[in-house]
Protein 1
Amino acid sequence: MNRKLTVAITGLNATDNPGPGVAVARALRDAPEHIGRIVGLAYDSMEPGIYQAELVDDVFLIPYPSQGSEALLRHLEHVIAQTGVDVIIPTLDSELGNFIAVEPALRALGVGLFLPTAEQLELRSKPQLTRLSENSALPVPHTLILPDVGDVESIEAEVGYPVAMKGAFYGAEIATNVHEAIAAYHKLLAKWGGPIIAQRFIDGESELNVVAVGDGKGGLIGAVPMKKTVLTDKGKGWAGVAIRDEALMEITRQFMATTRWRGPCEIELIRSRTGENYIIEINPRFPAWCYLSAGAGMNLPLAVAQLASGEVVKPMSDYRAGTMFVRISLDQIVDLEDFGQLTSLGELSRWNHKAAKKAAS
Amino acid sequence: MTTRIKDLAVSDNGFVFDPYSGSSFTTNAVGLHIIRRLQANASRSAILQSLDERFEGLTETLDRDLDDFLLVLRQQKLVDPDFRL
């Protein structure tokens, strides 16, 4: 049997719009025969997942993505020296570029990642999604890129109203005429930056998502489709259920084959009232609901940790449709000493304390 | 008939889950009996006979009630749109 992996994860910001880190850690904890130490990498000492002591053994603060890949690597070298990290699972969109950039240096240090390439990352960006669909059979609603506010005029002829106006990374507004589209353009640009895109509005019957892992060679390691059953006011899934849907699986397989995607992703789809599925977004990382995959019997975070470590993982197809999740919000009691240590030193280790406690018992 | 009804998860208390759509439903004992008989490929006459045997007092409207229930199944896309017994 292989030795237990030490895994570092990011995205411990389990807020009302949660990062995926806590879900990834929970899934890894479900496999104690494979996973040993879990190291949290946080950007802020108030990220709630830091204080889940049973999930995260150590926490290190790392520089925000805006500080670049060099600063990230310097901090990671320290984390690796302190904890002997084997693999890292980044879970946030904004940090992926830096992690991809430092992947060769980390590999030289004996640390594995299982991430898409920079080119693959760009392929699934919102502005590129239409081009991806033009070169494949992937169904994407007709999309127009708007480099300038003057381009809003062309929406009526090229896409038609109503239209979904979207920021390149985040944010969406529905516009029913040119005046609303111009207002949405300025609002999205000010808040999220450009380019703004206009996407054909799909009058959807239901929102569907797939968490999937690609093997980097065009194959699918595994996927679990989910239907959101309760939404927050931000449109985030607060509850959902694993479903069996061959059409979604086929789209997922096509995406993997077309992009040769390496690593985890979330495919967001909308099903029209007439039954057609459209990809509205592809997130290049695990979604916050990815613990559902482990709960349904297909532990995809574990698969990524194993793949990142160089282990061979066979494709998986079995999961329990009907497995539900319902999110919960609760107040954690935090030891002031933990908070103080993390804030003043930038790191918090529970590993040795846990080991001593285990030995004593 | 679509195979979809065969894949429904059905519990004894009348909770029905469709693994394809993620939708769930509740039905009474009669509905539950019909679904289970449909899952077993029973014919119309066999379903009517078993309903008659199991649920007293349904006889007069049994035929129509069965059609009404099949209509509900079609509306919920649990059987093909053209499915008739």
Note: The CA atoms of residues 72 and 78 of chain B lie 9 Å apart.
Protein 2
Amino acid sequence: MIQRPPPKVVPTAPGPPVSRSGRLSALLHETALIAPAAILLIVFLILPFFMAGYLSFTNERLVPRPIPTRFVGFENYTRVLGDPDFWQAFRNTFYFALLVVPLQLSMSLGAAMLLNGRLRFRSFFRSVALLPLVTPITVIIVIWAAMFQIPDGLLNNLIRLFGYRGDYVNWLGDARWAMPSIVLLSAWATFPFQMLIYLAGLQDIPIERYEAARIDGANTWAQFRYITLTGLRNVHVFVIITTTIQAFKLFVQVDLLTRGGPLGSTNTLVRYMVQEGYSAQRIGYASAIAIIFFILVTTFALLQRVLIPND
Amino acid sequence: MTSRAARYVPTILAIVMAVIVLVPLSMMFTVSLNPDEAQIQITLGTLRAFIPHVVSLENYQHVLADPHQPFLRYLLNTVIIVVGIVGLGLIVNSSAAFALAWGQGTYRKLFIGVVIAVYVIPGESLVLPLLLMMSRVGWVDSYQVQIVPFIANSFAIFLFYQFFTGMPRELMEAAKIDGAGLLQTFFRIGLPLSMPVVSTLAILGFLDAWNSYLWPLMVTRGPEYRPLSVAMATYFTSQQAFWGNVMAFAVLMTLPVLVVYLIFQRWFVASVMSSGVKG
């Protein structure tokens, strides 16, 4: 949605002169229409947002306690920035994004090109490809947990089939493999979304360009490189940034499968924030993490507006 | 590669893709139909875990009869939450968007700016202050704590706003000449015409409810108000060794979404494309 330029507010033409009571009733109507949304947005979105900012400067706890909450200045921030667990979660979050974004992008672009080209039973394959999108995420996690089984779950048997000679891979229990395993699952779970965006982008590339290239003797690779990839530039920016932001929010998968372990190797920013603010009840400290997370996500969202020119 | 063989490459690749997608899903169905837990454990990594060879609904009976994990209650909770958020959200968001599109006030430009700005705030940043608020007013463990905060939605307002600004001005003026105020125009013309947006938001809200996890995890304490997503997670954790039951629960939870998807496939695709859903 963000890639579209915001529509301009329509200037309403000055109507025929109305009486004072008419104007009053028009005002009442407008207020009645807009007030519920305005109040709800203020109470449940804008207020919590400013609260998060305020709380990050206090030592607030989740459950009220005898000692009153006090203002602690930048203490939470300085402590967060010196907290090795925070930095581990920070690194893990970026590591996840770094792995999952390219994988998901190539999967979704590949699938989109397949479905956009000449293919028999195209609508059947498209329906199948979209199934992960309609499968609830907790269900997907449970299914993959069964496939990650040790010592002879599906994935272990599969790598043996392809020539793995070791004993078995402890997918979720080995600090080296836990995050890559989460990456596999996550890429499978959401690639159809990016695929749909790419599919729309591919359909926007005029077919004449390929025909012209073929006449000029361009081979398949050159056509892909110079027409497909170039034509999809804005789509790429949009997909890369939304996928990255989505990756930053990683939580359910690691909360359910690994509890952030082993050895904190799959703890993420969101999970660390929840752990500190909810489980350990240190709302003030966790709010500082929430604000840092907000800045991170907003930076990427703004990057998109800079990189995609509004037309 | 000869060009004859090259013709089959797309089909082969498409089959590979279909296998990658279908294998995990078919395992869920196959295991859910197998009542023999010991056999499931032995065959979980083999081909037999993917092709149904026994068909028994025993696991489903276990799931539906479990008094500690009342599946139907979870389903009811989820439905109540979806209907609450989507139903109330449609009225609240569309009416606000209508006033923003066709009202008179100069505040409208600012309001739309705010709506677009708050859209980038990640919900994860807000859960802690929101939890603090909700626990202070005693809303924790209820339906309203899972509905009320999500009724007003900047994305929904934006979508309705785009739709309403595209409506012909003549239509609005005709209504005005007929003596209809903004309120009547909204209920008689705006809302009935905006059904495409309504269906998009209904589908997205439906998917959202089946996927939401963090917030319901924090604000529900037991089965009474817990939605399916969190229930699936707790069921999985408590039934670790019983794959048959776990997969039956998973199938039961997926079926409603699957049915809606198969019926409304075209709308589904359009809706999902207008917004990323899974977080």
Note: The CA atoms of residues 181 and 271 of chain A lie 17 Å apart.
Protein 3
Amino acid sequence: MMKRLLTLLLALMLAGPALAQSGPLRLTITDGVIEPITFAVPTFQAENGAAGQVAADISRLVAQDLAGTGLFREVPATAFISQVSSFTQPVAYADWRAINSQGLITGAVTVNGNQLVVKFRLYDVFSGQELGQGQQLVGTVDGWRRMAHKVADATYSRITGEGGYFDSRVVFVSESGPKDNRQKRLAIMDYDGANLQFLTDSSAIVLAPRFSPNGDRVLYTSFESGFPRINVLNVGNVSRQQLGTAQGEMAFSPRFSRDGRQVIYSLSNGGNTDIYRTDLGTGQHVRLTSAPSIETAPSLSPDGSQIVFESDRSGTQQLYIMPANGGEARRISFGDGRYGTPVWSPRGDLVAFTKQNAGRFHIGVMRTDGSEERLLTSSFLDEGPTWSPNGRVIMFSRETQGAGGTSSMYSVDISGRNLKAVPVQGGASDPSWGPLQP
Amino acid sequence: MKMMTRATVLLLALATAACTNPDRFGGAGGADGANGANGANGANGGLAGSANDPASPQFFNQTIGDRVLFAVDTSTITPTGKTILDGQAQWLQTNADYRAVIEGHADEQGTREYNLALGQRRANAVREYLVSRGVPSSRLQVTSFGKERPIEVCSEESCYAKNRRAVTVLSFSSITS
């Protein structure tokens, strides 16, 4: 798709300093957030005739992004007392207070040919002032969804003080066909399921794609040769090549280092699976574990100093942390059942994992010392968590039971709230959530 | 606009997908895919012969048995499995023109990565047993499909028991060996 990429210009007016800090339109995202913040998004002004449709579409998507977090609740347009007929007119705060809308987002949209200009403002209704400054985005009409996501990200960010996650993409495995002959292909989409593009055909089984830190490449496991090997795919031109790994019968479960220059993965030889690291620049391989047990699913800490992984060295799958260059590992999972697929959070404080216990699967999080384990989901088969760019949401695969079982992707807040399916046509598994786009 | 006069203007290159057709590969979904068709179900389908002919792959697959089964989360060869593998070893020694890829599999009750590793462990256990019975290791390769290619699709132990398997898939190799 990058062949056909349009390069867009985005002029971004930065928010002013500290004005936001004094207003009460503020949400601290904690486990205790129960009451969503209310907001209104009157349809953005179309500043010329050509902008009508896209102005309406953008307003709806901004509202959908925010409401979709579960942290915000939209006040419907039918409740409005005031109409906003101009982007520059003073806001009638009393009219918005009267319908109990804590936040108000106004905007204006201009279309010239394929150029799209979006301006927006965020108001703290009960404080009677603007939160941050007006901002202007310039892009193309084709890219209108990204413009809406950027408006929503800026709003989320001003109110919560944290980064957003709406203008991001997810790479995953698109599935079709019966359970005993499932066809799998790599696909990429926006975080909300829009703009789906396939990255491979279904001529070979592909598994567990992983984004590079800046989203330019994807590592995945392919059965092209009949033996699991790791491929590196360039998202821009969809070219791919096999990763030169250390010598082994099977290579799988890859992840990039945070600088994107190294890959950690599992290699199997003679029934034994261990963790290795390969430097993409020098081509050098380092073996990081050497135990007769299964060591797999490595994930680096954000500072690059440690690796969390799973091992059955104790007899069952459990989670361990070791130094990034190998060495003594300490076990961090001690609850009932088995633990696998650990993923270090972008903030560094938590590890997300898959837990299997008493015939059920769960997605959970724990602190990196193993304390405060919290199970977020429960089903016949949940697995493979991936973190949103801001570390507040986890996406994962859920497979249903039985002969007709299919896989879909779900997301859930790390509080365990706001569980919902990610809308994708057909089966979908193994999501990897990419970074916020520039 | 007055409010924007003190703002910094940044220029960012925005990459966006302008394509409307999501599929650059022509096919819709898996209809024309051959995902895992190369022996993932251990069918040995390409090789001819009769099950009555002891030198045929059919005899190997059906009369001797091309697969052994495993208990939950183990790679130990069972007594029944040893009998089958003894037959496989004998056949492979008699029919030296054949090579084999041993494919390990797991049931769906496990995470993807772990099941790949577990399948490899199972396939390797079969390889080691065959080698201990005199089959040259150079004729045997191992791979694992983890839980990706079940042969039974129900979510009950009756199906899981058949999916926890290692299948010896023959290929005729006199040309290459």
Note: Residues 152 and 158 of chain B are 9 Å apart (CA to CA).
Protein 4
Amino acid sequence: MGRPVAIIGSGQTYHGRRFDVTYPELVKEAVDALFEKTGISPDDIEGVVSGTMPSMMEGVALTHFYFAEVLRSVGKPIMKTETCGSTGISLAFTGYYWVASGMADLVLVVGSEKMNEGDSQATMTTVVEPFYQRYFIAGAPGVFSMQCQEWSTRFGIPEEKVREAATRITIDHHNDAFDNPYAHIKKRLTPEEVNNARIITYPIRLWDVCPNSDGACAMIFASEEMVKKYGLKPAWVKGVGYSGEEYWFGDSEKAIWQCAIDAAKQAYNMAGITNPRKELDVAEVYNPFTYQEMLYYECFGFCDFGEACDLVLKGVFSREGELPCDPSGGTLCTNPIGATGLNRVAEAALQVTGQAGDHQIPGAKLSLAHAMGGVDQYNGVMILGSKK
Amino acid sequence: MKKDFYTVSNVIRLPHKYAAGPTFTRFYNGLEEGKIYGTSCPSCKKTFVPARSFCPGCCANLDEWVEVSQEGEVVSWTYTDREFFGMPGKPPVVLALIRLDGTDCDFLHLIGGIDQDDLEKVKSSIKRGTRVRARWNDEKKGHMLDIKCFEPVS
């Protein structure tokens, strides 16, 4: 076990189609917001971690070189972390490991994406090898639709109930997004609008899917000494867990999804959590698809397998519920992929430091952040707390 | 009013030629003969399809070749009437994970032989557990798409 580590500040950009700035300018917006908010001097940062999706997304390779100046990394060690959709949470882990190891006291971590400048679905197709599966995945939605079908039929959940619960989730999150100044898609949806929306990949319809967003997120990981020095409200890293499985889709089950279960278990064990639904105050679950959010509730032990739809319909995971999930609107409303997982961590940190503004869960002391990467291949979970 | 700024366009075209290696080559040769080959791991006691050069469980080199069944059960499926990058044909398409009889992983491929213009008809023809069988193209090229699709067994 390493030294105690805390997040002492974050900065996010406004999200959307950001054709008003270049990619480095977008990254600068998040980094500048972070330094302005914390009052920390960039000179005091000892190392920088940067991450994005594969280079094909924006057509510029090694983006951490492209961002060298705006990351304030000139003259400092810089690392790139890239794990597809879980890039953001992996970035947070990299910053955490660096400080926990004792090799640095203050590390800047930045995730970014400018999805609207390229072809995001084609980019994601290149995550898959060219010999066999690349023909058959229909981008990210195809894979996640098949996972959803595997899950709902595995537990015999009626199609209508799954639809009703997914509809509830998307309506809630798009409402929640109005309270998050950085969210991309904010919309008052009606059940009719959601249920009759065009099919992307059955059973996923338009409002079950996250958008293509441009945005960046920056964060500082600090040692206990730096927490004291700057006097900023810390979100302590209480637990981390990351687990993966075989590369090919079809080699492992995705309903009772072992790598999601194991990632959460590792993080809970480290944080001493035995009853996550009771002990956690808020969770920022990676939810690029409505259905997947419910699957995670089950894999993370928020409820039993096959039970998530019923509990969603009872409001257990909504803003006023027992365990509010994604009060920021989540990935479903804002998805700059390389930053998305880090946004989850930033939001979880804002919650336990009482700085989440209009979407603050009152009195939140323990939160969960999560992201998933690859063709349903990896999951990462981080637990944050207001107390060390 | 929001000002519009310039954009700069750029197309990157990078052709690749991938080495398929002996295992994929033998698997493709099998497709050319209308056969689907897998490899088995003696220690994990599992059969994988397509054939693997190494076991995904224990990483042992695999050289126990088996011709696997061309029939199996649908585990999961999806339908789309939208065109996605790299798709082998025009939509609508039905994609599925299929557990071929006697194998220990799901095989990802296309579903055919059903009316795909109407989602309701697709839903009534394809469910978890539906038995399907490989349908081959007349002309085979030693390619993944020599198998045209998997069709419900009537």
Note: Chain B has one domain: 21-152.
